[in-house]
Amino acid sequence: MSEKDQADLAAMERTDEPDLDRGIVEAWAAKMISNPDRAYRATFYVATIFFLVTTLFPFYWLLMVALTPRNRLSSVGVLTPGGFNPGAFVEIFTRLPFHRYIFNSFLIAVVATVIVLLVASLAGYVFGRLRFRAKNVLLLSVLVTSFFPPAAFFVPLNRLFNRNIDILRPLMQDGSLYNTPYAIFIPLSALYLPLSIFILMTFYSQIPDGLEDAARVEGTTRLGALFRIIVPLSAPGVATAGVLTFITVYNEYFFSSLMTDGRPQSWAPMLEGILRFQGEFEVLFNLMAAASIVAVLPVAILVIVAQEKIVSGLTAGAVKE
Amino acid sequence: MASVTLQEITKQYEDVTAVDDMNLEIRDGEFITFVGPSGCGKSTTMETIAGLTLPTEGTISIGERDVTDLPPKDRGISMVFQNIALFPHMDVYENISFGLRLRKYDQEEIDRRVEEAADVVQLEGMMDRMPKEMSGGQRQRVAIARAIVREPEVFLMDEPLANLDAELRVHMRTQLQRLHRELDTTIIYVTHDQAQAMTMSDRIAVINGGVLQQVAPPLECYNEPANLFVAGFIGSPAMNFIEGEVIDDGFQSQYTQIDFDPETHGVTPGQDITVGIRPEDVFLEEDARKAASPTKAFDAVVDVIEPMGKEVNAYLLFNRDVEASAEGRGEGQLLINLAPDTDIAEGDDIRVVMDRENIHLFDRASGDAITHSLE
Ligand SMILES: Nc1ncnc2c1ncn2[C@@H]1O[C@H](COP(=O)(O)OP(=O)(O)OP(=O)(O)O)[C@@H](O)[C@H]1O
Ligand SMILES: [Mg+2]
């Protein structure tokens, strides 16, 4: 080994390298390279803060707008409200029956979710666990439904729901579904069904056959085995499908606004209520903001309650038990 | 308590026939064991009886009822699954009581029965455990408890003792036999363990490739195997087979000759047959008196010796030119059982005799047994 080689080796082993002159950035970079854990942690915090700011800032600003008195709306700051007027949160209920709009949306979303989960469970069982001819064709045709833009279905459905149907007369006053919750959750359930079928099918197919067999020998029917064994074991999937359906239906505007005349007693949804604060001569931005915040609460609560299941549902399949 | 009758049961999967035209009558209160190599259709037969798979053809009756089209819950059966199949989201108590709760027994009755069943399988104090907090053996015992707690007419048990240690297995074996006696139920059992099959069963059903080979009491399967497959499958170590041909005054193979009168045993000179002799029916020439009716002696060379404790297995070659095959059971080779104190060493030249009373003859073309004794 030559003397030069030895000198190089010695240089590589020295860590402080005192004779190199460095700027702040270089020094920082060197520190990160010698200590990668710190770099990862720093990146993690930067990324987390970025996502938190981009997702939460709109809420924050909504709150700022809601708290600003109406006559000072033009002076809302980026970070501070233009005043302090919590009364807006009361006013939304006095000026309009906004609670009724929320109730409408909530009820429609709950009913749609229940229908979707029930039907999708049965379909998911069939697609995920049974073998039969033409299964893939059938599955594909179910999925194709969800590829259409909802607007494609609107015109025929609207015509249908506006017609007086005699057999419905005992149920509905005038025999037409227009201005009833049925006109909203029937098409919405159908539209969001394929997604849930797909989610549940994936989960149900992973439950070992032996468990279903054991349940059936112990005394359940196939249906009993589905609801006593397969569904509980697929809880994350069911929660995910349920919450996704609930949120989409709750937030849905297109069908919900067109299938009713917009009055709360005609089952107009929450979004319709928010838009009602937009009067003929002025737009009550503070009330719209307050209403939006109130409207988001049911979903927020639901997600917080179900979050553990949803997280494991969305990441399931990564690790199979 | 019920008999089980399979009539012409066939189960066809896309590429395999798992069960092939099976006719079997299982008597009321009988303990019958299905044995056979892996993949021969034991579990499929069980599932067909349970109603978990529908047979492609044939009918099944339990008791007097034709149950071919009944769902599992209406067949009056319970089953221990090969893969155990405990419900992962229920604790031990809920698992065991699942069937009782479905049938709406009152709480007191459920508690009493669960306690009894847990007692039989020694699971006291584990009622609150979840399946994933238990060992494989404990889970298997929960599965057995879940099956016995309902006191059904027919038990189906697919290798219920596979995951237990030797001591617990012997204990459970006795427990199951006691249970069988007390409840007087019909038990259909699957095992790979010959000791279990021999000791527990009233009858053994030997299956190969989906086809029923022989149904008989254990000792009959052992002493009078119906064909080459049963002869080779039942008994451990397995029977020796020597392939050869019938000649005018007996049997001739490459290395051996055995004298007998072809006519009395229903074979004709020129016929291809296989001689079967169990390792314990071959003796050293000096011990020939231990054989009821010794043949004349053969020369042999000791190839490998395996001392097993209570006996010695010796792999012999008929002469020094025989190629020893890896498993020691090829043409020209013979496995014999000797007393543990026998004084032989590998490489010794010895002379052995066979016991004519226990020489089996099989027709090589069909595999069927011709006779089980040359006397
Ligand atoms: N669902 C199925 N689809 C297709 N083939 C199957 C199915 N179940 C079993 N088989 C086939 O049927 C045959 C019999 O299987 P079975 O499970 O009854 O064997 P077994 O005797 O229980 O084996 P082991 O002793 O290994 O448990 C095998 O060849 C197997 O591959
Ligand atoms: Mg099996």
Structure in words:
The complex is a heterodimer of chains A (321) and B (375). Chain A has 321 residues and is mainly alpha-helical. Chain A folds into 2 domains: 67 residues, no CATH class; 226 residues, Orthogonal Bundle (MetI-like fold), CATH 1.10.3720. Helix content of chain A is 69%, strand content 0%. Chain A contains 14 helices and no strands. Chain B folds into 2 domains: 230 residues, 3-Layer(aba) Sandwich (Rossmann fold), CATH 3.40.50; 132 residues, OB fold (Dihydrolipoamide Acetyltransferase, E2P) (Beta Barrel), CATH 2.40.50.140. In chain B, 22% of the residues lie in helices and 31% in strands. In chain B, strand 9 and strand 10 form a beta hairpin. At the A-B interface, helix 9 and helix 10 of A face strand 6 and helix 2 of B. The complex binds adenosine-5'-triphosphate and magnesium ion. The site of adenosine-5'-triphosphate has 12 residues of chain B, from helix 1. Adenosine-5'-triphosphate (ATP) binds next to helix 1 of chain B.
Task: Give a quick rundown of the structure.
The complex is a heterodimer of chains A (321) and B (375). Chain A is built from 14 helices and no strands. Chain A is an all-alpha fold and 321 residues long.
